Automatic annotation (TrEMBL):
InterPro entries: GlycHydrolase_4_CS (IPR019802), Glyco_hydro_4 (IPR001088), Glyco_hydro_4_C (IPR022616), Lactate_DH/Glyco_Ohase_4_C (IPR015955), NAD(P)-bd_dom_sf (IPR036291). Binds 1 NAD(+) per subunit. Belongs to the glycosyl hydrolase 4 family. The keyword Protein biosynthesis does not apply. Gene3D superfamilies: Lactate dehydrogenase/glycoside hydrolase, family 4, C-terminal, NAD(P)-binding Rossmann-like Domain. Substrate binds at R87, N141. This is 6-phospho-beta-glucosidase. It comes from Amycolatopsis iheyensis.
Amino acid sequence: MKLAILGGGGFRVPLVHGALLGGSGVTELVLHDVDAGRLAAIERVLAEQAAGVAAAPRVRTTTDLATALSDVDFVFSAIRVGGLRGRRLDEQLAHAEGVLGQETVGAGGIAYGLRTVPVAVELACAINELAPRAWVINFTNPAGMVTEAMGAHLGGRVIGICDSPVGLCRRVARALGADPATAWFDYAGLNHLGWLRAVRVGGEDVLPELLADTVALESFEEGKLFGADWLRVLGALPNEYLHYYYFAREAVGEHSRGAQLLEQQHGFYAEPSLASWERTRLEREATYMAETREGERDDLEGGGYEKVALALMRAVAYGERTTLILNVRNGSALPGVPADAVVEVPCVVDANGARPLAADPLPDHALGLVTAVKAVERATIEAATTGSRAAALRAFALHPLVGSVPVARRLLDAYAAAHPELAYLA
């Protein structure tokens, strides 16, 4: 198989390559990026990773999109429009208005989406033309929004992935002493806005048992983050990103993750090596959402995006039927959510792609939040694909974490002035 990674100079690419070395069926890996220097840095790390591995895929790099997409079977989309400097600006401008600037949630997520969706749509059109049979696995944030925008051109051939639900399910299984390979996890919502509502082992829901045990519940990340009392009120385990909604006032003052990552990665790209990359990766993971956690993160070994992506790719390529939590078009799976909206739910995956499994309705409080955020995502896509400044303003003003039309106007003006990529807004 031939795999192309768009955004191939990105810092997390060696995680994907490392997983490929374990046996994936990929014989050729093409890295595409608009930054030749970043490509060269990652190529060096991958060469060190592959040393002594007999079945390592051949790696090529290119800044030419047509070359990258020629004869590919799978495309991983992992772009970052504006780079980490853009992320830093998103956070800083939001914080100046006293609102959250996180890159997928609130004002920062809208700004990032406005920059990213136009490029993602261009890529989708290019893939349709140059690689009409290729499957696209979207890593690019905001993942649900970008997958939905690309899906307008690629249909079911684009599938979005995220490692947050996988990590949550793994930690819950560990706390319950259950085998995650055989347990059923009832998870539903949008990307970075979902809830684990049941864990069935042998047909029995054992999540109430966990919710009743404070020690076990607060032994892992989400339990510490939300607190046992609030989780019992919800009767479910939220995705970690719901911290920004449930503790919005406390979250506003958090430090700039973009600035932190920019500083961490500067040294690596200046003098790239496998050892330097590994040190930087561990530092990056150890500080991930550190402001919202107590103690050490429990998944520094990786095993997130890259393993989900490879499991998805193998299921499609070889018909190895599996069930994964993915970002796909809803259809009739999640009641109360539009059929053409992208949701994050368990899916059966095989050679025909990913099909969402029927889910119970969300409770009113969760459905209300999902409906509001999906309306914001769609307004952002509308702005990004039509150039409508009014749609962009609507996205900012209607987001639950902005909560003010005057603030929304100032945010839109500030982002448009700071990011040349937003010059299309009229």
